[in-house]
Design goal:
Pfam families: MOSC, MOSC_N. The chain is mainly beta and 264 residues long. The chain has helices at 110-120, 148-160, 185-188, 226-232, and strands at residues 9-15, 24-25, 28-31, 42-45, 64-67, 74-77, 84-86, 91-96, 102-107, 125-129, 142-147, 175-178, 191-194, 197-206, 213-214, 219-220, 234-235, 238-249, 251-254, 260-262. A hairpin with a 4-residue loop joins β15 (213-214) and β16 (219-220).
């Protein structure tokens, strides 16, 4: 897969404690059948219990979470706001995930609701997702993988249009691989071996308007990358960039680990 002497390697490892909010980069993580620990462990919902998402609420990108302990206590930070700390406990209630799949969640209370409402400017609540069979409904127990070669190809096309390159965080991956000569190798890799961890391809990532939100400013910044991706990455299901992988064999993944592609 690579023409050089260097083997493809993991260069970024990120989890997202609150779905839609900023990610947390880590040097290593223990990958479990549910994915990365604490990934999408919390969600922010509107008054009807529907998930808030970045295109509708781009200010989510400016909320920076920090997991405090293995019990999933959480601190949230945002510009010009005092920090919010929650313990993950509360009153259980049913909410509805956007695709219509019900899952359990624990409301984090009025103080948390007031904090996220103040940041987003619309009535909102913070909930901790309760584990469902096979993982949580919020992350589907899988890892989102994007290669540097794929981003480099996109940025090459953007340059042809006189558009500045985009950073990897526009695509919010869990795992970034560098060293594949062929862009979009993640689309065709049946399995990935990373140390003692094994991942299996499940489906390409269909991209939505969230990729047009600047993750550093929390502002909508379209029409890129969707305009350019539509020229060469549009399939039957939509515009695809990156891929989802399920955890076949759990283990520890460290930035710098070699990544081996298995075709079957």
């Amino acid at each position: 897969m690579t023409g050089g002497t260097e083997r493809p390697r993991v260069t970024e490892l990120t989890y997202y404690p609150v779905k839609g909010c900023a990610g947390v980069e880590v040097p290593e993580a223990r990958v479990t059948p549910d994915g990365l620990p604490h990934d999408r462990a919390y969600v922010i919902v509107d008054e009807a219990g529907e998930l808030r998402w970045q295109w509708g609420d781009p200010g989510l990108a400016l909320i920076t979470p920090q997991v405090l302990d293995e019990a999933a206590g959480l601190t949230l930070r945002a510009p010009d706001r005092d920090d919010l700390r929650v313990d993950g406990e509360g009153q259980a209630e049913e909410v509805t995930h956007l695709p219509g799949q019900p899952y359990g969640a624990v409301d984090q209370g009025e103080e948390a609701a007031a904090w996220v409402t103040g940041v987003l400017g619309r009535p909102s609540r913070l909930l901790r997702v309760r584990k469902a069979p096979g993982g949580t409904a919020a992350n589907h127990s899988r890892l989102h993988v994007v290669s540097r070669a794929s981003l480099d190809r996109l940025n090459g096309h953007l340059a042809e249009r006189g558009v500045a390159p985009l950073p990897m965080n526009r695509f919010r991956p869990n795992l970034v691989v560098d060293g594949w000569d062929t862009p979009h190798t993640e689309d065709t890799a049946a399995r990935l071996l990373i140390g003692d961890t094994e991942l299996a391809f499940t489906e390409p990532t269909v991209r939505c308007a969230i990729t047009m939100v600047d993750q550093d400013t929390g502002r909508r910044a379209g029409p890129e990358p969707l305009r350019t991706l539509a020229d060469y990455r549009k399939g039957e299901d939509g515009i695809v960039f990156g891929a989802y992988f399920a955890v076949v064999r759990q283990g520890k993944v460290t930035v710098g680990d070699a990544v081996e592609v298995m075709d079957a």
